[in-house]
Amino acid sequence: MRNAMLVTTNGPIEDLYRKESRIMTNTIEAGADLIAEADAATARLKEVRASIGRVIYGLEDEIELCLAAILSGGHALLVGAPGLAKTRLVETIAVATGLDTKRIQFTPDLMPADILGSEILEEADDGKRRFRFMPGPIFCRLLMADEINRASPRTQAALLQAMQEGHVTIAGERHDLPQPFHVLATQNPIEQEGTYPLPEAQLDRFLLRVDIPYPDRAAEKAILMATTGAVDADSIKVLDANEILNLQALVRKLPVGEKVLDAILDLLRLARPDESDIDAVRTGVSWGPGPRAGQALMLACRARALLQGRLAPSTEDVAALAEPVLKHRMALSFAARADGHTLEGLIKTLADRAA
C-alpha cells in the first residue's frame, strides 16, 4: 500500500517535470531560431547598406535612420538644405529595398485628389454610366513626398489617414494601400516663402525626423568624383516587399530589456513640461511628446540593434535615437529660444539623464 501511494504521488510530479522540460526545450529552440533569423537578417541588411553606399556618400547615420524607420513600419521626414541628396537618397533606398515608388512634387496648387485619386464617371459596355475609382500616386509601397511643406494644409491632411491606417477613403469607400506602405518626405528648412508648416498631428505620424547635414571634405570629394564622370554609379535591388514585411515582423520579436524600457519611459517624462523635474523643460517647452513617441523609440531601438547586428537594443540606442524621435514632437517657447536654448541641446541633456 505504501509503494502504491508513492507511485500515485510521484506520477503528477513526473508529469510536471516532463512539462517543464518540454517548455524549456521549446524556449531554447525558439531562442535559437530567433538568433538564426536575426543573423540572416543582419547579413541581408548589410547588403542593402552596401547597395545604397554605391550611390550615397557620407550619410551612413542618416541611411541607418531611414532604414530603421522602414524596418519599424513607419515614415520618415528628411530635413535639409537644397542639393544635399535628399531626393537621391529616397530613390536609392527604393531601389535597394525593392519597393515600388512614386514621387509627388508638392506645390501650393496641389489638391487632395491629385494624391489620393478620384472617381470618374464612365459609360460601360451595357450603356449604363458608373463611377470608377482612379487610384492616385499614393498607391505605392514607398511614396516620396518632395517638399511636403509646400502643399496647402488641406492637401497635407489628405496624407494623415494613409500614413496612420494604411488606407484612404474616397466617396465613402475604403481603398487599402499596398503593404508595406511608407512615406519618406523631404522638407527645406531654409526657404519659408510659399510654405505651410506641417501641423503637429501630422508631424507626430512621422516615426523619425532625419536631418541631412552638409558633407565633410572626404565625402564631398567622393561625390564630385562619382557624379561628374561619364558613368554614374547605381544601386542594386537586394530585398523585396515580402522580405521587408518579414523583417518588420522580426523587429517586433526582438526582446527589450527592462533597463531600456525604463530609459524610454524616463526620457518621455523628462520631456513633458507637466511631469519633468528639469527647469528648462518646465519653463521652456511648450508641448512635449505623447505615447506615440515611446512606440517610435521602442521600434526604432530594435531596428537599430538589428541593423548593427545585435539581438537586443541597449540604452545607447535610446540616447542615439532621442533626437530623431523627439525633435519634431517638442516645441520650445519663444522665451526659451530668446534665452539661447536649442531643442537639440535640450534633448541631449534629457537623453544623458535618462540613459
Q: Keywords, please?
A:
single chain, 355 residues, alpha/beta, Rossmann fold, Helicase, Ruva Protein, domain 3, five-stranded parallel β-sheet, two-stranded antiparallel ribbon, 14 helices, 11 strands, disordered N terminus
Short account of what is shown:
This protein is α/β, with parallel strands linked by helices. 53% of the residues lie in helices and 14% in strands. The longest helix is centred in the first third of the chain and has 52 residues.
Protein described:
The protein has 355 residues and is of the alpha/beta class. The N and C termini lie far apart (64 Å). The protein is globular and about 75 Å long. The protein has a five-stranded parallel sheet. A two-stranded antiparallel ribbon has the order 3-4. The chain has a two-stranded antiparallel sheet with strand order 6-7. It folds into two domains: 48-111 and 141-239, 3-Layer(aba) Sandwich (Rossmann fold), CATH 3.40.50; 254-355, Magnesium chelatase subunit I, C-Terminal domain (Helicase, Ruva Protein, domain 3). Residues 1-9 have low confidence and may be disordered. The chain has 14 helices and eleven strands. Helices cover 53% and strands 14% of the residues. Strand 3 and strand 4 form a beta hairpin.
Q: Treating each run of at least 4 consecutive H or I residues as one helix, how many helices? A: 14
Would you tell me the structural class of the helices and strands?
alpha/beta
Count of β-strands: 11
* Main beta-sheet strand count, sense and barrel state: 5 strands, parallel
Order of helices and strands: HHEHEHEEEHEEEHEHHHHEHHEHH
Distance between the termini: 64 Å
